[in-house]
Amino acid sequence: xxxxxxxxxxxxxxxxxxxxxxxxxxxxxxxxxxxxxxxxxxxxxxxxxxxxxxxxxxxxxxxxxxxxxxxxxxxxxxxxxxxxxxxxxxxxxxxxxxxxxxxxxxxxxxxxxxxxxxxxxxxxxxxxxxxxxxxxxxxxxxxxxxxxxxxxxxxxxxxxxxxxxxxxxxxxxxxxxxxxxxxxxxxxxxxxxxxxxxxxxxxxxxxxxxxxxxxxxxxxxxxxxxxxxxxxxxxxxxxxxxxxxxxxxxxxxxxxxxxxxxxxxxxxxxxxxxxxxxxxxxxxxxxxxxxxxxxxxxxxxxxxxxxxxxxxxxxxxxxxxxxxxxxxxxxxxxxxxxxxxxxxxxxxxxxxxxxxxxxxxxxxxxxxxxxxxxxx
Length: 376
Ligand code: SOE
Fold this sequence. Notes:
GO molecular function, one term: glucose-fructose oxidoreductase activity
Bound molecules: alpha-L-sorbopyranose
EC number: 1.1.99.28
Shape: globular
Organism: Aureliella helgolandensis
Keywords: Oxidoreductase
Domain Gfo/Idh/MocA-like oxidoreductase N-terminal: 4-128
């Protein structure tokens, strides 16, 4: 058994999901590699301590450069706000560390290109945490699509809806609300939420060739948590776009943080010549499937409860009929990363895969600004 000694940078919501996945994966998935929570890195020692104790990190660093110098760290997990991804990833690659980076890969395509060049030059294993690919029902959708059951694809439709920024008193900047600060996040819902939808879409339905988008910022000024001053909001609060896929199908994507009543509703639907598929994060273990070849008197949408041992990942869990949830998408991502180390095959989505998502995000934002169609 080889140890995979993890240095985690950041301890927010994603720090928790990833830490949990490192602990859980080896208990359920076989690998020659076993994650060890070696060090947690965060600027604020007092805040880092309870997190490190809770999850069992062996040590704490308050400077990520010091973490990268350590010989007892094999892999760095970047869970910081987006504006730090590039610098840390490039330095980590130079230090020969494997890198697992939170999504989106970067603030923009130019940064992403530098990051891809760095990891490919260093030859270090790398992966980006687009976790929804690893929800078993979504992986099953991929299996069904790859089998050709849907036939020619006509439509791909996806939504990611939230409502947590409707209140104009929510600040921008700071530890909890950096996602509203363009300097920390790079963009709003496009990089934060649509990036998930785009990653899944590229994986399931192939490349996007061109896009046309609209964005809106509903609350124009918010107090900045760091300065205490009201400052213009420069992120997109909502974004919708149309696109063409290379396979000839049409895409329709919508994301917002202003859909009252929706906390985190990610859905997609794919319509093919022979069959359709749809999925809903709030019912994440179910895949809806309609097959036109069914006998007409019983034809209709079937709801596949993805919990059988033959279905993706499920053979590693309980017994058929008993389901799993959101956290397991991260556990599966760790399990797949460990498997990639066992086999020497690259893990996905790699930095290069995630760069493609970044390119689509940039084209979407440019198109919204110029009110144009943009090639990706
Ligand atoms: C934002 O609220 C957020 O936490 C995203 O940053 C995550 O990537 C998404 O999965 C859930 O929503």
